[in-house]
Design goal:
The chain is an all-alpha fold. Helices cover 81% and strands 0% of the residues. It has one domain.
């Protein structure tokens, strides 16, 4: 790859800081850790990581750069993302199941959680712009082709991000599972997590 060691170290430091700094993705993972337990939190983290990897691939092959040059297209992504978050918020608030129930149906839902997390990450226009602005700073004009460098850095970024999000998902899940079986608390948690989705939608709408 022929990225100078100092540049690569800078990338690792910057990527770690970005990934451990609380943001919408981490809040999203936390909400599912709280409402669905450790597996739910890790599933959401895996979904976010899948979305991040897809963005890394798109960035490596120039698709993200192309999309970022069309404000109308970014706005369309924003509207879709906003509507999807609102839909998730309503779905979570209407969910009356217990937290982290160990049934076959619950295990199947983990795949759905991961899928939803991936979609939320994919349609976030800020993530598209971030990849275009962040990864190219750490590439070199010599050595591997730039797309290969971007993809390699993107994969490393995904690993760091998944690790940070998974820790948050497991931690929030462990705390939540102590209260499993309390239907009144479960209901409050679902409402709270639904409100989190609405807040994330509001942040996306205001472009904060």
């Amino acid at each position: 790859m022929d990225i100078h060691s100092a540049s690569f170290l800078s990338f690792l430091v910057a990527a770690t800081i970005v990934c451990v700094t609380p943001g919408p993705d981490m809040l999203y993972v936390m909400s599912f850790g709280v409402s669905q337990g450790r597996r739910g939190g890790v599933s959401a983290a895996a979904g976010v990581a899948a979305g991040m990897f897809a963005h890394a691939v798109l960035c490596a092959f120039g698709v993200s750069l192309l999309i970022s040059r069309y404000p109308a297209l970014l706005s369309a992504f924003k509207v879709v993302g906003l509507c999807y978050l609102v839909h998730l918020g309503v779905s979570i608030i209407r969910d009356r199941s217990d937290m982290a129930v160990s049934t076959e149906r619950a295990r199947q839902d983990y795949g759905r959680i991961a899928y939803r997390a991936m979609i939320v990450n994919l349609i976030n226009p800020k993530v598209i712009v971030f990849y275009v602005a962040f990864l190219p700073q750490f590439t070199s004009s010599s050595g591997w082709p730039v797309p290969a460098q971007l993809l390699s850095l993107g994969v490393i970024f995904v690993i760091i991000g998944f690790t940070a999000d998974a820790v948050v998902g497991v931690t929030s899940g462990v705390l939540a599972e102590r209260f499993t079986g309390d239907s009144n608390l479960t209901r409050k948690v679902n409402v709270g997590c639904g409100i989190v989705m609405f807040l994330l939608a509001g942040v996306l709408a205001l472009d904060i």
